[in-house]
Amino acid sequence: MLIILAAGLCGIAKAQGQVEEIIIEQRLPGYKTSFEANPFWHNWFVSANFGANAFMAEHSSQAKFRNTITFMPELAIGKMFNPWWGLRLQGGGGSLHGFTPHAQNMIHMHYMHLNIDFMMGLINFFAKYKPDRVFDLVPFFGIGGMTRRYQQSFTIHGGIQAKFRLSERFDANIEFQGMIFNDKMVKVGGFPNDGLGGLTGGFTYRFKGRGFRVAPKQAVIDELAAANLVLANKVNQLENRPPEVKIVEKEVIQPVKTKDVDVYEVMPATIPFRFNSAVVQDTYGPLIYNIGTFLKNNPDVKVRIIGYADKFGPINVNLKISQARAEAVAHILQKEYGISADRMKIEYVGKERPYYKNNNQWNRCAIVEVIQ
Questions:
Q1: Residues of the chain below pLDDT 70
Q2: What is the rounded distance in angstroms from the CA atom of residue 12 to the CA atom of residue 306?
Q3: CB–CB of 290/270 below 8 Å?
Q4: Burial 194-215 (b: 16+ CB within 10 A, else e)
Q5: Over the stretch 245-278, which tens digit does the pLDDT of each residue have?
Q6: Bridge partner residues of 366 (DSSP)
Q7: What is the CA radius of gyration of the chain?
């Protein structure tokens, strides 16, 4: 009977692992996919671009195009809030070439600008999310300001970026952008507004924490709960099954020693937790019930309860949440099933155990195993 109960618990843990694989493999287009909360310090980036711009104002059309072109440096810092949208703060400066009537004289002007842009990754939006996607097209649009000597102007900024992934930390990008600003910045004339167009190339550095986690769907969670209930009912039926009586004639039945029962090797059970939570969900009530019943029926057995966290967030926070998860399971077993505290050993990542178990990203759980 012990082996049957333990096999049932092992089956529940196996079903949970299968559902977690379903969660990981379930990929939908970006705009239909839910992602887990993005920690504040994750997915930040800094970019540096260099290229050329062309100034469009009064009399620019009367000059040779090459004379309107000047050097254009850009520096930006930003954050992606999910795989397909983010914000950046971009600044740049340099010189502009304006012209007098009939392009008789060139006016050399220095300027600076700063703008904030909304960025949208088209391929990550319409295609299935891939954390290692090599190429994406990123339109952007924003507002900002520009200054030249004593003149300031509100600006409208926009363009498109082609992004190429080089490694975990570095991207290469090519960017076409345009900017519209007040006509008074240079000289009031026939143009209602002046403009600036530029083509640049450069690199983006991604800070630690690049990537996103797909949030599990409620339907998958319900499927896990249903699987747990089915297995729990099977275990209950086996527990209540009447004993089989076998009559043996002229045979002496020797007592069997059960000191080293193999059930201990197959007992481990896994209780998953929600992101950043140490509360045992009602979904896993049958699993806790089976563990509690097993321990009540085997008063000499002691267990180890190990709390785990995932790879995201500060180490000190993960250590606290890991410990809290293990203690939450122990508290239920002690309060609702009368399991003595001296039969349960609490462990958690970063203490007796390695910080992450097998580098598994789905270690938001507590594992219950028999102490040999």
A1: 1-27, 186-191, 216-227, 229-230, 242-267, 313, 350-363
A2: 17
A3: no
A4: bbbbbbbebebebeebbbbbbe
A5: 565 555 555 554 544 444 444 467 888 888 888 8
A6: 271, 307
A7: 32
Closest CA to 66 of 45, 79, 52, 51: 52
The answer to whether the beta carbons of residues 77 and 44 sit under 8 Å apart is yes
pLDDT of res. 218? 55
Q: Give DSSP secondary structure letters for 21-90.
A: HHHHH---BGGG--B----TTSSEEEEEEEEEEEEE-TTGGGS-GGGGEEEEEEEEEEEEEETTEEEEEE
Q: Taking Cα atoms as reference points, which of 143, 141, 123 lies closest to residue 133? A: 123
Whether 75 contacts 100, CB under 8 Å: no
Written as six digits, the tokens of 269 are 């059970």
Q: How far apart are the first and last CA of the chain?
A: 19
Residue bearing tokens 């842009």: 117
CB-CB contact of 205 with 61 (8 Å)? no
> Which pTM value belongs to this model?
0.54
Domain residue spans of the chain: 2-26+218-370, 30-206
CB 367 within 8 A of CB 269: yes
Name the 3-class secondary structure at 104. coil
Predicted local confidence at residue 105, as pLDDT: 85
SS3 category, 93: strand
Token pair, residue 104, equals 């008789």
DSSP category for residue 252: P
DSSP code for 288: H
- 3-class state of residue 197 by DSSP: strand
Contact predicate 309/278, CB 8 Å? no
How far apart are alpha carbons 13 and 342 in whole angstroms?
A: 25
State the Cα–Cα distance between residues 119 and 127, nearest whole angstrom.
17
pLDDT at position 315 is 77
Here the tokens at position 16 are 């949970």
User: What CATH architecture does domain 30-206 belong to?
Assistant: Beta Barrel (2.40)
Beta bridge partners of 76: 47, 90
3-state secondary structure of 27: coil
CATH topology of domain 2-26+218-370: 60s Ribosomal Protein L30; Chain: A; (3.30.1330)
